[in-house]
């Protein structure tokens, strides 16, 4: 084996050490940009995608009125525990044939406890309390109902005969109309001098029309009025006053109603 002189060994060691330092320095210089990018992307990732950003869930449902019609353009708001509106949307018709065709809404919110507010012009406002949304589950509210504000009604009435005898039944024709519906319900009453002499329920299939029989009234002049109570969709109203003349029945005299029946038979 050949031994190098001590001086040469020392020089060789110094050269090797210097080369190693240069290589290490160069490696660090080359790796520095990669390390910087790694740190940068890691930081950006933490800022752009926080843990709560993907925790939003849906609150959804369908809004109807009291007559069973799904309603579009209802403002739906999710109000959080601080009283702030966290999300809002209008009800609409789903674009999918399999979806609700009217009245559907969805709200995208984070976990929390919410109050859902419903509002639309011409309707009473509605609320749904304590709607809870978690990180795992939203809230399917199903069918929600808001009631239409009652609309004005008009009640008209007429006598089948305004002159009858004490032997005749008094008949009153009544019609109730409203812009809210063509099938109003409620109760019709005929009042004579503050006393109810007849009443009947107004059926939806009669489209606001009815004929009331008052039976036989005493002799004299009667001022009759028809009063309509109204329902959830329609406000009550009263007809004009009707003047009825009732004369004494004389045996052998043909009454007005009997004469009409005979005439119609021909």
TrEMBL record:
<dbReference type="Pfam" id="PF13620">
    <property type="entry name" value="CarboxypepD_reg"/>
</dbReference>
<dbReference type="InterPro" id="IPR013783">
    <property type="entry name" value="Ig-like_fold"/>
</dbReference>
<dbReference type="InterPro" id="IPR008969">
    <property type="entry name" value="CarboxyPept-like_regulatory"/>
</dbReference>
<dbReference type="Pfam" id="PF16640">
    <property type="entry name" value="Big_3_5"/>
</dbReference>
<feature type="domain" description="Bacterial Ig-like">
    <location>
        <begin position="164"/>
        <end position="246"/>
    </location>
</feature>
<dbReference type="InterPro" id="IPR032109">
    <property type="entry name" value="Big_3_5"/>
</dbReference>
<protein>
    <recommendedName>
        <fullName>Bacterial Ig-like domain-containing protein</fullName>
    </recommendedName>
</protein>
């Amino acid at each position: 084996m050949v031994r190098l002189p001590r001086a040469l060994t020392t020089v060789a060691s110094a050269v090797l050490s210097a080369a190693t330092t240069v290589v290490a320095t160069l490696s660090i210089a080359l790796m520095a940009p990669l390390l910087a990018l790694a740190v940068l992307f890691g930081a950006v990732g933490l800022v752009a995608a926080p843990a709560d950003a993907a925790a939003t869930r849906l609150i959804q449902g369908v809004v109807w009125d009291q007559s069973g019609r799904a309603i579009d353009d209802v403002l739906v708001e999710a109000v959080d525990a601080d009283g702030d509106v966290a999300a809002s949307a209008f009800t609409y018709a789903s674009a999918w044939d399999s979806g609700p065709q009217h009245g559907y809404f969805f709200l995208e919110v984070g976990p929390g406890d919410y109050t859902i507010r419903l509002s639309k012009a011409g309707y009473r406002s509605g609320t749904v309390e304590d709607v809870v949304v978690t990180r795992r589950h939203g809230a399917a509210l199903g069918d929600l109902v808001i009631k239409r504000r009652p609309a004005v009604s008009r009640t008209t009435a007429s006598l089948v005969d305004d002159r009858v005898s004490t032997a005749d039944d008094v008949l009153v024709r009544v019609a109730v109309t409203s812009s809210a519906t063509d099938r109003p319900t409620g109760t019709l009453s005929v009042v004579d001098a503050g006393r109810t002499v007849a009443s009947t329920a107004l059926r939806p299939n009669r489209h606001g029309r009815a004929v009331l029989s008052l039976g036989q009234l005493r002799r004299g002049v009667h001022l009759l009025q028809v009063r309509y109570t109204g329902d959830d969709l329609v406000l009550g109203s009263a007809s004009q006053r009707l003047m009825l003349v009732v004369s004494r029945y004389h045996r052998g005299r043909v009454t007005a109603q009997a004469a009409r029946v005979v005439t119609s038979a021909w």
